[in-house]
# Entry
Amino acid sequence: MTEIRCRKPEALEGQPEGESRCVASEEEEGEEEMRRSRRDEDDQEETNRVQPSKQKSAAVSFLQYLLRMFFGFLAAVACGMLYAGHLSGYHDRKFWFSTRQELEREISFQGGSGLYYHYYKRMLAAPSFDRGFYELMVDNRTISGQTINAVERLFLYPELITSFIYRITNSQVRRSSVCLCFTLSENCLIVICN
# Structure
C-alpha cells in the first residue's frame, strides 16, 4: 500500500492555518499503480502454477483416503479376530466346553442357541447342501404332526450361510460317532452311540 504522508500546506482557502491535510503525492500514486499491476500479473502466474499442484494434491489425498480405508479395514478385521478368540476362550473356561461330549455341549447352550445349533448340525449331517436345505424347508420333526418351513419360521439363514461356507471350504472332517461303553457286571455291557 501507498504510504500516506501528512504535510502542513500553507493556508488554503477555507481552511484554518493549523489544520493538516493528508495527501498522497502523484509520484506515489503512479508507483502504487505499477505495484498493483505487478501484483495482478504475479497472481495470474501463481494461479497458473497452483492448478497442477491442486491436481497432484487431489491424487495424493485420494491415495491417503485409500490407505486410511485399507488400514482401518485391517484393524477392524484384526480386532474382530482377537475378540472372537477371546469369546471362544471365555466360553471354554466358563463351561469347560472342550472336555464335554457332544450331547453335553448341545445341552450347555443357553436359550434358543441349542435349537439353532441342532439345525446347523442337521445341515452338516445331510449328504449335500441341497438335501439339507430341503429337509429344513419341509421339516416335520420340530412340531409333532405338522410340516413347517423351519428356514422362514425360525430365521435359519445364518445357519444356512455358515454351513454353506463350511462345506465350500472343505472344513468337514470325517465325523466319527461317539460311543460310551458301560460295564455293569460281567455279563451286562451297555453301549450308547451318538
